[in-house]
Design goal:
The protein is built from 26 helices and 27 strands. Helix 5 crosses helix 9 and helix 5 crosses helix 15. It has about 775 residues and is an alpha/beta fold. It starts with 9 loop residues before the first helix and ends with a strand. Among the domains are: about 100 residues, Nucleic acid-binding proteins (OB fold (Dihydrolipoamide Acetyltransferase, E2P)), CATH 2.40.50.140; about 250 residues, 4-Layer Sandwich (Metallo-beta-lactamase, Chain A), CATH 3.60.15. The radius of gyration is 29 Å and the shape is globular. Strands 10, 11, 12, 13, 14, 15, 17, 26 and 27 form a 9-stranded mixed β-sheet that branches. This is ComEC family competence protein. InterPro entries: ComA-like_MBL, ComEC_N, Competence_DNA_uptake, Metallo-B-lactamas, RibonucZ/Hydroxyglut_hydro. It comes from Nocardioides dokdonensis FR1436. Its main location: membrane. It is found in: Cell membrane.
Length: about 775
Amino acid sequence: MRPVAGADLRMTLVGAAAWVGGLLGALAPAPVLGGVAGATLAACAVLAAWGRRAAALTGAVLLVVLQAVGVSSLLRHDQVARGPVAELAAERAVVRVVATVTGDPRPLDGPYADGVVLRVSVREIGGRGRVHALRAPVLVLAPDTWREVPLGASVVASGRLGVAEGDDVAAVLHASGAPRVRAPPDLWWRGAGAVRASLRDSVAHRPAPERVLVPALVDGDDVGLAEEVADDFRTTGLTHLLAVSGTNLTLVVGSLLWLARGCRVRGRWLLLVGAAGIVGFVLLARTEPSVLRAAVMGAVALVALGTDGARRGPRTLGVAVTALLLVQPALAVSIGFALSVLATAGIMLLAPGWRDAMTRWMPRWLAEAIAVPAAAQLACTPLVAGISGQVSLVAVGANLLAAPVVGPATVIGLAGGIVGLVAPPVGRLLGTVATWCLSWIVAVAERGAALPAAAVDWDTGPLSLTLLTVLSLGLAALAPRLLVRPFPTVLACLALGVVVVVRPPSATWAPEGWVLVVCDVGQGDALVLRAGEGSAVVVDAGPDPEAVDRCLDDLGVQHVALLVLTHFHADHVDGVARVFDGRSVDRVLTSPLLDPPEAVATVGRTAREAGAAVGVAPYAVALRIGDVVLQPVWPTSSLPAAGPGDGSTANDQSVVLLAEVGGVRVLLPGDLEPPGQAALVRALPDLRVDVLKVPHHGSRAQDLDLLTGLDAEVAVVPVGADNTYGHPDPGLLAALEGSGADVLRTDTDGALAVVVRDGVAVGVSRR
């Protein structure tokens, strides 16, 4: 991979040093930062002694920048993690705060909570008899009375503080009641809010998802976007259109500069117009870190697109990265920041060479339209794979097809919001045109995501990601030689098209006619009931996200019609995120005991982000899901309730399911303890099943009257090899075998399947 001719890469090295400093400050202990500084200083001294003064001076500059960002990161982290707000949060104190609203209230959906979530900057906090003046970011979970609080307003509020996850906010405030607005927003905030409201009004008469996507494209306001649409955009590499990015600013400010040139604005006045456009865009899209990052990256892109951009672009990118990290060192560990920088760098360093190679046999405009998204996508591929576990094969094509209407949709949509302030009918007309453009993008996303191999799964382990990085670098180096001639380029595109369009063969291991599979996930539960071709009911998600994801992939499960989480212990829910990964999940049912609370919050957040409905398993209500009939038979209450907070009572509140699939009756009792098992015997004295999932991994504590009285033909035990609990208990296994059950266990037999042969349930192991 050759750098752009004439490019000045010295500031790129400075930006890289700043990034390393931010990473060390955020992730490594303070002594490590000092050790790196000492080693770098020693290397500079050696270079100076050898007469390499220029190299020594460069190293010294890099060291200063690395240390500055690293120390700034440490200080910011210490300020957030150990300040008065964090201390009060650790005590779960009731406080009164004076704060400025810095983020729009967004709906907080879920089965166990409602209201809104927003960010504020706390300037004064009082609690435990003391008042502190400070400036700290805080996340607020608030009732609906906060929904109309305008951005930029100064408010007084009270509530209970809680400890925040991550280090980007000092605490979480669970607000009680409505806030008191102390001072309204400044004029510029009110103006930006009016434009945003006018933009939403200009498309309110249009159907979804277009009416949501226009504000998302213009200013990042994606409230109300259906999760299936977001999934399609992720699969096809169009996610950047749903959030504020450098592309948005480039389009908006670029159009403003074009109008200014048409009005004969020149020289420094043109720079002033560009700066005003950037400031206006930031106010419209909100001054959150992601928006500021996008504004800076967009400004860098404008420089790269200008005169002498190939030489000035990399230098400007280095300056921008350094400045951003000095102001906000937490960006060093931000995925969004990394993607922005990589995409911008790919466009600057790779796209010009690829474009020039293709211009030998195609028009320049077409070569540039192909080179820019391809370079950005390739630069981001390893990181995207590490995040999502997938590599999109249609991203370049989808971006190429969407590109012609992105600019018109953005500019016309913004114009509709601005014009709508003074002439609402004209604003609605412009909004209609913008939604027409978005209809094309939606169609590209839907059709692309529906292709059989639109994206391929990629392991997120270090070796796999290293291999992908090497492959990406190799492709970047070989691309100019490949693209300079039409035949190999067209042949490669045809080969990729065949891979994407031809459906790969199913990799399922389970025998024909399986009705139940017990995944081998270690010391935990994850079971799959077959609801139809490619569809399933999943009961629990195990402790290992990779294992449950691999099990569902092996079974060819693409649609989870229902996910039941019997209780919230880690060995049943820690893998839940990967159940959603690459699959549609319609509904989630859980135990009514919402304990431990951390796991409850994680499950709720994961389901909410995926757009899945969540609720408590309804006692004694029969549920038909495809070929599966389910009936929760325990616990007898379907009302959500809090527990002691440590999960100590969760086992006996496990959801117990009586299932029937393919004529086979299955009892799935979670980790139900002997008291609950005894109560189940009293409630269902004549219960008989074909298959029993042994509770609690075959622990010794069981009610044998229940387990041996079911007349089960197969008993399956999900249990981890070499576990330290002594599971499964030999006495229990002997009792089950004595009752006539064929006992299979995942620690010795691997994944298990139940099939129907001659009308009888039979257990089959993978090994």
